[in-house]
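Record type: monomer structure entry
Structure origin: computed from sequence
Chain ID: A
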Amino acid sequence: MNNLQVSEHKKQLLPKNIVKVVVVLIILLALSIIASLVFGSRTIGMTGLMDGLLHPDVQSHEANVVRQRIVRTIFCFMVGAALGVSGALMQSVTRNPIADPSILGVNTGASLFVVCGIAFFNISSANEYIFLAIAGAVLTAIFVFGVGSMGASGATPLKLVLAGAATSAILSSLVTAVMIPRSNVMDQFRFWQVGSVGSGSWDSISLFIPFLVIGLLIALFTAPALNALALGDEVATGLGVRTGTIRLFASLGGVLLCGAATALAGPIGFIGLLATHLVRLVIGSDVRVLIPLSALTGGIILMISDVCGRLLGSPGELQVGILTAFIGAPILIYITMKAKVRSL
């Protein structure tokens, strides 16, 4: 690729209507937060909402419900943001428009390590879940990328997806094999496995923050180099990018975010795919902009899904992991048909 082509590619990366997009996302975020605080098994009126937000001394039932939902809303947004950024990083590293933690088997690897921890080491706290889930996610990502890179053509989008699907199937079988003979493990694991943000607490938020911050910093630091990587390895190397190092760090950031989110909320799928794809359709492929907007979009999508789950399952709730899978699977099929599994 000559200098003219590089320059033309950079022009194509420039985000379009970025200010309008940010304004729309901020409005959607505000509406999502309000909906998350108001709607559920019980709808909260304006007085109860204001009391819960502005008057901590008021102890009415509605005000207490709002305070509980504040924690859930913050936790939900953080999980969605982490999964959105993780999807953006994985798609940029693999140059695969349908790369996502759930599709590449990373979520399933985290699940296997968690269920093994429950079965063999009697773990039960989020502190223990989070490190096991991250370890499982890291090892699974290494394995999938290794298998997908075999052969003369290297890591093509199709090979990575196939490797991820095969790995996910194998690991799912191992999860079932470990869980079925142990009824106590099945009871504890099955609620976590569905994917839910209802168990969010201030403790889980404080535990999540360091991993979220580190993952976001890695994503923002590697974003300019990932733009160069989109031009191809040879061109990126010519521009001074250490392609192997950048792929390693970006992958580490994506797996760290995905593993921490999975440990605390369960394996919620398709958020990274949906958020990143929607943002890319609107603003283009500039990773420097794609990452923060994917975080914002991922948080919004997960909050809306959570509210819909509460309304559809009232007086109980429909777990958010079920809704994201129900919405995400058809969109994945559509993207695959349109993109024909081509690289970005």
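Annotation 1: The radius of gyration is 20 Å.
Annotation 2: Residues 1-14 have pLDDT under 50 and may be disordered.
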